[in-house]
Design a protein that fits this description.
The longest helix has 23 residues. The strands form 5 sheets. This protein has a 6-stranded antiparallel β-sheet. The protein has a 5-stranded parallel β-sheet with strand order 5-2-1-9-18. It has a 5-stranded mixed β-sheet with strand order 19-17-10-20-21. Among the domains are: 107 residues, Succinate dehydrogenase/fumarate reductase flavoprotein, catalytic domain (Flavocytochrome C3, Chain A, domain 1, Alpha-Beta Complex); 105 residues, Fumarate reductase/succinate dehydrogenase flavoprotein-like, C-terminal domain (Methane Monooxygenase Hydroxylase, Chain G, domain 1). With 544 residues, the chain is an alpha+beta fold. The structure holds flavin-adenine dinucleotide (FAD). Flavin-adenine dinucleotide binds next to helix 1, strand 2, helix 5, strand 6 and helix 6. Flavin-adenine dinucleotide (FAD) binds next to helix 1, strand 2, helix 5, strand 6 and helix 6.
């Protein structure tokens, strides 16, 4: 029986594992924490799909065009057509396994309006869409666990891929409980490790998603794509611990952005973009808030109190808890914050990377969102990509006999052991904080050659400090061994942002403010033996 190793158990990892099991493949599902603690549970707003119950006038074709346009026409049409074309099937599947979407008095879906969409097409489950979908998928996965087709490995982290002659044969896994490093061979390795939030420090997302896997695979030969496209969500509430997301749902229900000018409210988005101004795409609103240069507020207080209590209870509660604000009466102070990563591992339409038998799904793969993601499209992409990868793996013959990776395992164990014995007591977290500060500062909403070059200099300094750190016993081994790859990823991200001398979607260069047709393709970066090389995907290597 073919063996598949899936790293990460959020929505994309679960979807892939379940589809693999249905196709008769045996899956090991690896993550440090249970699915119920993955970032996917934080998704509150909803999932986009055009079904037979859609708003009058809507169509899959319109969903495709909105997605391509929202993404600055950088995503491949074939990929987006596949994604949007499967929306209805995915909603039916989720309903069949117990996801209950909110409905109106007539029993029809209570679609929500999300940014950059011509029609309302966002399905949601109260204020906890991600949680509900994860719960349904976890229950579904359990059936296959009972049948022995899915085996969970918890407290386990990805270390590196087992690659020989351009073919992937599995991964080295680090067990956080025992501290052991183990080689696990498989016919296919599927990365489902989410975005790169922790590389940026405080974001709306989970610190479990740090980009380490992408950074490590990059050094092992996997190509990365569109790293410069980092989505700032326009409406977040700043708290000392975290950036709390004020979901687009608030604007979907009618919430209005404004700032104060001499005691007068200026509804700047509506003034500039008309009645749908508050639902422009996230890149546009974030830039407008940044340009306003003064405190901006989101007002929902004029809505019927029942709408707030029924459709926005999470926002109501988090504003009360973290800012002491009653949103029934008081506007919410909002700021843009890092939220989502359009870039990641470059994959073909079947979700395979440039390394045979190495796949990537969900947020860690870069394929559907181009230069800017539409809200509600990423839950759809997480499930769709998991299914696509599973089908591709099932459709090919197994790798046969795996090479002996004993030597590599012994070497990596030796490196870990050596580091442990040479305790330098230098705080790893200090370097992680330094790099996060640089990334936030230099890869902000508005960028320039100068600040990106400064960012590279800062990261190079972090790399030189990290080279002097052997082992910090005050943090988990994972934080020790992951640091070099994180810094490599940070460097690659800045390089991609420097390389793209134009403005498009979430990448705005004040020194190149126009969109340039010469850049109408993805940015690719290859490690190239430690001298990373950046190029434009002019040949469409990854979209056909
Ligand atoms: C606050 C918030 C709200 C959102 N709301 C919406 C929404 O309403 N609609 C929408 O479409 N999208 C939304 N998104 C985006 C969406 O939730 C994510 O893109 C999606 O859930 C990602 O799923 P995933 O399976 O790719 O990754 P995740 O759910 O992030 O799962 C990643 C998994 O990988 C594991 N992992 C990470 N690193 C390692 C490692 N080194 N070794 C082993 N395992 C590892 C993690 O533990 C986890 O199990 C939201 C995001 C946030 C942060």
């Amino acid at each position: 029986m073919k063996q598949v190793l899936v790293i990460g158990s959020g929505i994309s990892g679960l979807a892939c594992a379940i589809r693999c099991a249905k196709l008769g493949l045996r899956v090991e599902l690896v993550s440090p924490y249970p699915s119920e603690r993955s970032q996917s549970v934080m998704a509150a707003g909803g999932i986009n799909a055009v079904t037979d119950r859609c708003e009058a006038g809507d169509s899959v074709a319109c969903h495709i065009e909105d997605t391509l346009k929202g993404g600055g026409f950088l995503a491949g049409r074939d990929a987006v057509t596949g994604l949007c074309g499967h929306g209805a099937e995915i909603i039916r599947y989720l309903e069949s396994i117990g996801t209950v979407f909110s409905v109106n008095a007539q029993g029809r879906p209570n679609y929500r309006a999300f940014g950059g969409q011509t029609y309302k097409r966002t399905y949601y489950c109260g204020a906890s869409t991600g949680k509900q979908i994860v719960t349904a998928l976890v229950m579904e996965a359990r059936r296959f666990e009972a049948a022995g087709l899915i085996c969970r490995r918890l407290r386990s982290c990805f270390h590196s891929a087992l690659i020989e002659d351009g073919v992937c044969h599995g991964a080295l896994l680090f067990d956080e409980g025992s501290g052991a490093l183990e080689a696990v061979c498989a016919d296919a390795l599927v990365m489902a490790t989410g975005g790169q939030n922790a590389l940026f420090g405080r974001t709306t997302g989970s610190t479990q998603c740090d980009g380490y896997a992408a950074g490590r695979l990059f050094t092992q030969g996997a190509e990365l794509k569109n790293l410069e496209f980092i989505q700032y969500h326009p409406t977040t509430l700043l708290t000392p611990q975290k950036r709390m997301l004020i979901s687009e749902a608030a604007r979907g229900e009618g919430g209005r952005l404004f700032y104060d000018e001499n005691g007068r409210r200026v509804y700047f988005m509506e003034d500039r973009y008309g009645p749908k101004g508050n639902l422009m795409t996230r890149d546009v609103i974030s830039r407008e808030i940044d340009a306003a240069g003064r405190p901006v507020f989101l007002d929902v207080s004029f809505l019927d109190g029942r709408i707030i209590d029924e459709r926005l209870p999470e926002i109501r509660d988090l504003c009360a808890r973290y800012a002491g604000i009653d949103i029934h009466t008081t506007p919410i102070p909002v700021q843009p914050s890092v939220h989502f990563f359009m870039g990641g591992l470059a994959v073909h339409l079947n979700h395979e990377t440039n390394i045979r038998n190495l796949f990537a799904v969900g947020e860690c793969a870069s394929i559907y969102h181009g230069a800017n993601r539409l809200g509600g499209n990423s839950l759809l992409a997480a499930i769709y990509s998991g299914n696509v990868a599973a089908e591709a793996i099932a459709g090919r013959s197994g790798a046969g006999k795996h090479p002996d990776f004993g030597k590599m395992l012994r070497e990596e164990r030796g490196k870990l052991e050596k580091r442990r014995q040479t305790d330098s007591r230098f705080p790893v977290m200090y370097v992680r904080d330094m790099v996060a500060e640089t990334m936030q500062k230099q890869l902000g909403i508005v960028r320039s050659e100068k600040n990106l070059a400064d960012g590279l200099e800062d990261v190079d300094y972090c790399i030189s400090v990290a080279e002097r750190i052997n082992y910090d016993p005050n943090v988990m081994p994972y934080f020790n061994y992951s640091l070099p790859a994180l810094l490599t990823l940070a460097r690659a991200t800045l390089q991609c942002a420097l390389f793209r001398r134009e403005s498009r979607g979430a990448h705005y260069r004040c020194d190149y403010p126009e969109t340039d047709a010469a850049y109408q393709c993805a940015t690719l970066i290859a490690y190239n033996g430690g001298e990373p090389r950046t190029r434009l995907d002019k040949e469409g290597e990854y979209e056909s």
